[in-house]
Amino acid sequence: MKILYILLGILCCVAASSTTDDDQKSTHTNNWAVLVSSSRFWFNYRHMANVLSFYRTVKRLGIPDSQIILMMSDDVACNPRNAFPGSVFNNKDRALDLYGDNIEVDYRGYEVTVENFIRLLTDRWGPDHPRSKRLLTDENSNIFIYLTGHGGEDFLKFQDAEEISSYDIADAFQQMAEKKRYNEIFFMIDTCQANTMYSKFYSPNILAVGSSRLDESSYSHHSDTELGVAVIDRFTYYNLEFLEQIEKDSNKTMADLFETYTFEDIHSHAGIRTDLYNRNLSKVLLTDFFGNIQKVEVGNLEEDLLYLAMTNEDGSPKQLSTQLSQQPQTNISSERKPRLLNKDSSKENYINLESTESSLGRRILIAILLVSTLGFTYTLK
Ligand SMILES: *[C@@H]1O[C@H](CO)[C@@H](O)[C@H](O)[C@H]1NC(C)=O
Ligand SMILES: *[C@@H]1O[C@H](CO)[C@@H](O)[C@H](O)[C@H]1NC(C)=O
Ligand SMILES: *[C@@H]1O[C@H](CO)[C@@H](O)[C@H](O)[C@H]1NC(C)=O
Questions:
Q1: What does the pLDDT look like over 268-326, one tens digit per residue?
Q2: 248 and 113 in one domain?
Q3: Ligand 1 pocket: which of 21, 250, 251 to mutate (most atoms within 8 A of CB)
Q4: For the region Disordered, what residue ranges are annotated (predicted)?
């Protein structure tokens, strides 16, 4: 019986000590992106290129089209002034046609309105609104929201016809928080005086960046002489340049990205708002927003437990007798913290068994199984 208590004690210690690092891990289980170019007309080519570049990046890093809402006037690729019909480029070398592969535009032309954007965020639609055009997020969703267009102090123009104000977005985010429509939001905006647009936010778990301060313009990066227009904005360009280097399994963090923002590159003061956001940016993976999580559902948990307990790391079957003679618990308190059971895991019904921590997780699972087996044999005696 003593052994049983000791084992249980060890297990409790491990469980307790595992919570600290988990606070820094995102608890989301799905990713969404909302990408908006709010301008129109040929001379705003670069806004379309900005948004299509992000579209390409989030897709490359694993967010499926069904979880990307793309909103743009879409009047550039087929514009009569386009020397390269059907194409949109973000670089004067024209190496990459952003319009080339499957582009699913969810809101185009005159559907790009303030009203539609707010309805999208708050999910207030009539019953006939197609699912594919809805932001079907929940309390486990991390959402990347990117806006580009012409703006000024506390507003962003939509289609030269109307404006959205920083208060409108702040209130929409609050409604989203109340309706449990997100876990975390990463908001990015590239426009003049961009940082004023996130200054009114007041809802929790929002991280925001913008391209320029109050009274500052944002600048385009370079032009294509044949197209005769600027093809990308500076702030967007440097974000993309960094994101180009990361892959789905990247360990790069938000802090790594933000460190690259310099006035020399961007020609304006990029802003970062963190006061609504709890996690340490050195611990926030870019893939928490620019990727899609792999998950194992709790429905399979018992099978997984059994499988893990009955197999070695290489997948070969394990003898139960060797398990009972082992003392795996003594090895559990290594400095690597288990990712097992995030803070809200009971609510989320997910358990994350991926990545390097799985071997530790596996050991704990074995330990739990072992304790129950021991307890069982003890009662038999
Ligand atoms: C990320 O970190 C883990 C553990 O530290 C490491 O095994 C893995 O190779 C890293 N991935 C990349 C792409 O560097
Ligand atoms: C964030 O994490 C880094 C790296 O682990 C650490 O150096 C830094 O002190 C932390 N910052 C805060 C505010 O906890
Ligand atoms: C931990 O496990 C390793 C083998 O994986 C073993 O060599 C070592 O002795 C164990 N440590 C303790 C404290 O049991």
A1: 888 899 999 999 999 999 999 998 875 444 444 555 555 555 555 555 555 544 444 44
A2: yes
A3: 251
A4: 317-339
